[in-house]
Structure formats: structure tokens, C-alpha cells
Design goal:
Layout: H1 6-21, H2 28-35, H3 39-45, H4 49-72, H5 78-95, H6 97-108, H7 115-138, H8 147-167, H9 174-187
Helix pairs in contact: 1-2, 1-4, 4-5, 4-7, 5-7, 5-9, 6-8, 7-8
Length: about 190
């Protein structure tokens, strides 16, 4: 029988409460009551509500990274990997309620709690995409002069998709729009 630690119970409970009520409307007391833990127990693991929220976001980002690494390790062609990476990224962020909400708040207000997490993830994403691009160059599928710069440009483009899909809640088929981004990425805009 696997037992869940108090810290994990607190994190999962906080995750659900933040998802339901948001960061601003959630208190340590709310988390303590829902987790059936004393406030003292919560303060044993976390300094404050921001610390709990940060831990929740880090846990969700880890889920996202695992999903993306699975794509990178797949046996697909590098073009398919890149397409699957884009789609998996957007779909997973859409499911990760707190990371999604943090992205939304980060754009709508100065939300410093996740700034470092976001910066670290951006760098990891550049590295993951560089890995796919390097594989594509080695397999003679891609011709790229500067892999790191190309990976940075792709990350910036993907972040640009967050605004309409997650911030403005545009109800559209982002798979087809990501397909357009992939088409531009692979084929460019020049008439041949």
C-alpha cells in the first residue's frame, strides 16, 4: 500500500483549490481545512501561500516537461516530432489548470511568483527544441544555420500562441493553426 505524504496531500489539495478559486481568493486556511491538516503542518513544508503556489506550478511544469520529453524520445521523423511537440505542449498547458492560470495572470498583471519558473522552462524548451532540430540536421531533414537561434525563435512563436488560446480564450482549432506555423517553419513564405 502506497501512502501519500502530508506534503503531497497539501500540494494536491492546494492545486485543486487554486484551480477552482484562483490564487488571490485562496488562503492558507482554505488549504488547511480542505487538506484536513493544521496550519502548523502546512507551515512545516511551506513558508506561505506563494510558496505553495510555486510548488504547485513547478509540479505542473514537470508534468509538461515529461510529456514533451516523451515526444522527443519517440521514433517519429523529426518533422513529426516537432509537430507533435507543438500540439502536445499546447494541449498539456490547456489541461494544467494552475500553470495555465499563472500564464494568464503573468500576462495580465505583474505576477512575479512564476517568473523564474517560466524563465527556466523557456531555457529548457529551447534545449528540447534544439535537440529535435539537431536530430533533423543530422538526418538531413533540416538545413539550419544556427540551431540555437532557430530554437529560440520557435519558443517565441509558441509563446505567441499562448496569448490568443489561453489568455483571450479564443475558441478555435489550434491544431490547424499550429499546422500553419509548422508549414511556415518548414516551407517558409517565399513563393517557389
Amino acid at each position: 500500500m502506497v501512502t501519500t505524504s502530508s506534503k503531497e496531500i497539501i500540494l494536491e489539495t492546494a492545486r485543486n483549490i487554486f484551480r477552482r478559486f484562483g490564487f488571490a481568493k485562496t488562503s492558507i486556511g482554505d488549504i488547511a481545512i480542505a487538506a484536513r491538516k493544521g496550519r502548523r503542518t502546512i507551515y512545516t513544508y511551506f513558508e506561505n501561500k506563494e510558496d505553495i503556489y510555486k510548488a504547485v506550478i513547478e509540479k505542473e511544469v514537470n508534468v509538461l516537461k515529461i510529456s514533451l520529453v516523451d515526444v522527443i524520445l519517440s521514433e517519429s521523423s523529426t518533422k513529426e516530432k516537432l509537430k507533435d511537440y507543438f500540439i502536445t505542449r499546447m494541449m498539456t498547458i490547456n489541461v494544467l489548470a494552475n500553470y495555465y492560470e499563472a500564464l494568464r495572470n503573468d500576462y495580465l498583471q505583474d505576477f512575479k511568483i512564476i517568473e523564474k519558473i517560466r524563465e527556466d522552462f523557456d531555457n529548457q524548451e529551447i534545449s528540447m527544441i534544439s535537440e529535435i532540430l539537431t536530430e533533423g540536421v543530422e538526418n538531413n531533414e533540416f538545413k539550419i544555420e544556427n540551431i540555437n537561434l532557430t530554437a529560440k525563435a520557435i519558443v517565441i512563436a509558441l509563446k505567441g500562441f499562448e496569448i490568443p488560446f489561453f489568455i483571450e480564450k479564443v475558441d478555435t482549432d489550434f491544431e490547424s493553426q499550429l499546422g500553419s506555423l509548422i508549414d511556415i517553419l518548414f516551407n517558409g513564405i517565399l513563393k517557389r
